[in-house]
Write a structure and sequence with these properties.
Elements: E1 6-10, E2 15-19, E3 22-25, H1 26-37, E4 47-51, E5 55-59, H2 62-76, E6 84-87, H3 91-103, E7 111-114, H4 117-124, H5 128-136
Parallel strand pairs: 2-4, 3-5, 4-6, 6-7
Antiparallel strand pairs: 1-2
Helix pairs in contact: 1-2
Amino acid sequence: MDNLDKIEIDGQIDTIFYQPAGVYDITSIKKYIENVRKQDRNVLAFNRFIDLSNLESSEISQQDFEYIASIVKKFRADQPKVKACYYCTDPVIQKITFVFIETIDLMGPNNQVTSSLYEAARFLNIDIQRIKRFRES
């Protein structure tokens, strides 16, 4: 995880907050997955708010997607179902995120891509102010 990346784990609302910075690439995605995998088993059952609004650009190929998909599918096999909300304000990053979710077969009611913080809060059933505090920290 870069020095610019932020991650917070809030056990009171069972949510992991993550905001990568810089370039959205295979390395940043691997770092996030490794960081989540290292957490206590109870934390793995937490929902996720992934804020992609601080990214500068994306450098992910279809081959990268397929590689990450294989890692995630293996990791997810024995994990509890969680909700993940990807907050994107850039249309290009948003489109790439949709492709990423489709590639790792996460499309469905437990995953959402949105450009609205209010929609993210509603989807994860958390207070909008908690998301804002994370983003401002």
